[in-house]
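Deliverable D5.2: sample structural annotation.
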Amino acid sequence: MAPSLAIIVKLSVYCNELQLMSLMTNTPISIYLHIPFCTTKCTYCAFNTYTHLETLIPAFVEALIREIQIVADGAEIRLPAHSVFFGGGTPTLLTPAQLGQILDTLHQRFEITSDAEITTEANPNDLNLSYLQGLRAAGFNRLSIGMQSANAQELKLFARRHDYATVTEIMPLVRQAEFKNVNLDLIYGAPYQSLATWHDTLTRTLELAPEHISLYALGLEENTPLKEWVETGRVPTPDDDLAADMYELATELLGVGGYQQYEISNWSQPGQASRHNLQYWRNWPYLGLGPGAHGYANGVRYATLLSPQRYIKALQTPLERHYPFPSTPATVDEVQVDRANEIAETLIMGLRLTVEGIDRAAFQQRFGVDLVDLHHEVITKYQTHGLLEVSDSCVRITQQGRMLSNLIFRDLV
């Protein structure tokens, strides 16, 4: 006898839940939380950040906690998560108690692994020993500090609120608070920046001995003061060739300093590669929470409402329906990722991993096809030119290929 429609529907739902459970339990998720508040806005910043809205912080914390609860309820299973990252904006405008309240909710609703990497971004001038100890007590075990430069003129150009002395003064307190995993962000390729000032910044950064260093080539983003200043001739146009020289200098100095370049823009001491970064580059699932955050989970790429006010209002409104994972009332721009796009995204991001590259066996298990067979002509071309390295286990970009990575990515997708 044929099964009834109700039984078919139940079986379909059950199979979907099993698929979700298998995916998410075999690959723990990462969780990104966007804190959109800033005291001042940097001249290069195009992120979804706002000044003079600090009065919204208490309502925002409540809304973010509500968003966490709705996402977790939609999953219908307690998902494992092995990294949590508070970005911004300036997360350290929240008190340790507020950040701890958010972390407590994550622990209640997700299976945060015992060895999870839990990071917050921080401005150096927002930190003191008491605040740092509060972060540790709340459960944070990693800091990502926006140093950006050791040069006073460059920091002034960026409209940063700190100087290099502030970073040197805070690092001993960071260690005293028992943070054993610290990242420092640096920017290169800026107007007026020279190879000599960049060399000095790198040298001083190495003296601080962070476990991780992230280097970002300055981009002139729309609707930023720095882009306007360049276009109107107020400051000189950045020199791409000089930026390339800066990148090569960094590769040399950080390598000599004992750091491994595990991704095109990221270096770490042995065993200290950022788990959260790797989640992105491996194209594994992550949740994006908070105004303007982006996420990728359950085969869906999505974003949340940009405006903090609209975000808060959406999450204060009583729920009128059940939201399927990973949606919430604040979700916008949901796109179901098909197989072709998932492959393309996996290639673009995976080739950024300079040591690991793309694991051929893992790629075949995920997509049912060998990467080299799928893109034989393109891979062979760049292998011949010394830009890609191909072995039985992986395909990865060479040191020479890192400077031409965008060209390779375009050809592959």
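Annotation notes: Confidence is low (pLDDT under 50) at residues 1-25. The domain at 339-412 is CATH 1.10.10.920 (Arc Repressor Mutant, subunit A).
The annotation will be released with the project's public dataset once the embargo ends.
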